[in-house]
Amino acid sequence: MIRVLLVDDQPLLRASFRALLDSEPDITVVGEAGDGRAAVAAAARLRPDVALVDVQMPDVNGIEATKTIADDPDLAGIRVIILTNYALDEYVFAALRAGASGFLVKDCEPDELLRAVRTVVNGDALLSPKITKRLIAEFVAHPATPRPNTDASVLTKRETEVVRLVGMGMSNDEIAAHMVISLTTAKTHVSRALSKTKARDRAQLVVFAYENGLVRPRQRDDRNTLP
């Protein structure tokens, strides 16, 4: 059973999300919060698998709450999906850098939201197509300054190539085929890259690839899911 925490300052919206999620046999809503500060407290108390977090909230916003959750080693198992009414450029990269595993606009289809919850709980990452386009545009217009301790030199030559391919949107199967290696070997390289770069999941590995110049924006596929 996938345990979900709902974080939004609009009670009606939380009720709508709860009705949708609780109708699924493998998902249950374990709690709600109306602002970022309450979200962090609820995450620590309830330890959900996934937190659906609104960006714009009073007191502590969604991105700040996401960073607090992501930076707490005790909450490492929680995956955050950022939800917003607006696909604004400044939110996308900030959310991913803060530790979010997904970013969806609130007008997404119900099936897309359900798929997002199931996707991130498996350690994958999800962005809607319009968000993917904006993420690319953000890197083109404002190249990010790499964060401390994210030097690509920690990777072997083979791991660097794997991270580049992850940044291009390839799945493990595609990486294995491209590099002519077994699927098990591809998974091992990805796992080691995640560990060495201290990335929470593949979304963070994509950010790492961009920040360190391992992939250029025009190389990215406009895919719905970052594998």
Q: Topology of this protein?
A:
Elements (H helix, E strand, L loop, with lengths): L1 E6 L3 H12 L4 E7 L2 H11 L3 E5 L7 H10 L7 E6 L4 H10 L3 E4 L4 H12 L3 E3 L1 H13 L15 H11 L4 H8 L3 H15 L4 H10 L13 E2 L1
Parallel strand pairs: 1-2, 1-3, 3-4, 4-5, 5-6
Antiparallel strand pairs: 6-7
Helix pairs in contact: 2-3, 3-4, 4-6, 7-9, 7-10, 8-9
Structure description:
The longest helix is centred in the last third of the chain and has 15 residues, at 183-197. This protein has a seven-stranded mixed beta sheet with strand order 2-1-3-4-5-6-7, with helices on both faces. It is built from ten helices and seven strands. With 227 residues, the protein is an alpha/beta fold. It has helices spanning 11-22, 36-46, 62-71, 89-98, 110-121, 129-141, 157-167, 172-179, 183-197, 202-211; strands spanning 2-7, 27-33, 50-54, 79-84, 102-105, 125-127, 225-226.
Keywords:
disordered C terminus, 227 residues, alpha/beta, seven-stranded mixed sheet
Question: How would you summarize what this structure contains?
Answer:
The chain is an alpha/beta fold and 227 residues long.
Rounded radius of gyration (Å): 17 Å
Oligomer: single chain
Nearest-integer average pLDDT:
82
Alpha carbon gap, first and last residue: 22 Å
Poorly predicted runs of 5 or more residues: 218-227
Cα shape: globular
Count every helix, treating DSSP H or I runs of 4 or more residues as helices: 10
User: Order of strands in the sheet with the most strands?
Assistant: 2-1-3-4-5-6-7
The portion of residues forming beta strands comes to 5-15%
- Reading the helices and strands in chain order gives EHEHEHEHEHEHHHHHE
| Helix content range | 40-55%
Structural class: alpha/beta
Main sheet summary = 7 strands, mixed
The count of strands amounts to 7
